[in-house]
Amino acid sequence: MKREIIQTLDGSSTIFLPELDECYHSKFGAVQEANHVFIKNGFTLFKESPIAILEIGFGTGLNAFITFLEATKNGLTVDYSGVEAYPIAEAEALTLNYVEVLEADEYKSTFKLMHESNWNEKLRISDQFSLTKRQQFFNEIDDIEKFDLIYFDAFGYQIQPELWSTEIFKKMYDALKPNGVLVTYAARGVVKRSMIEVGFRVEKLEGPPGKREMFRAIKE
Length: 220
Description:
Layout: E1 4-7, E2 13-17, E3 22-23, H1 30-40, E4 51-56, H2 62-74, E5 78-83, H3 90-93, H4 98-101, H5 108-116, E6 122-124, E7 129-134, E8 147-152, H6 166-175, E9 176-184, H7 189-198, E10 200-206, E11 213-219
Parallel strand pairs: 4-5, 4-8, 5-7, 8-9
Antiparallel strand pairs: 1-2, 2-3, 6-7, 9-11, 10-11
Helix pairs in contact: 1-2, 6-7
């Protein structure tokens, strides 16, 4: 499948798949979207360490890298797991301009290490941040009450509706600890109904630039 590196409206890059007419991140701003959806409305809710995070759709590593920066800045310890069925090539990842846009030159080697590291092995990125990249399909996830926070960043419902099913959200619910939180850029009614069906309490929040709304789901 053909892949193109394109620039989004905030200056940060993403990967575009012409055959699907789909991007890995919002065309309105990859970094803006990650900060708004996953950091502002997810990560910042947690003030005490350690924080266990599961990312659904590791993709370019942007969400993991921004979380690393935030954890480092705030002195928080994070155990991060990123699930991806089809990893992007290391060389492709290193053409993305996240380090420059985030003004994180001192951590350029960290972003590189995130993509160089072996899959399915836990790696200590720093004293405060560990990363496990898990190459598996989302329907193979079977964690039980392991995570405080889930970043649900799968391709859009219109492209892969099966990733937004009740079956998948039941796995997400089971993977979260009590009072755990799931955040996603999505705001479709069918997604909300699936979340509620498995037991989540769902909040509708202001979306990132270019998107009116997003969801946050809480396991109570």
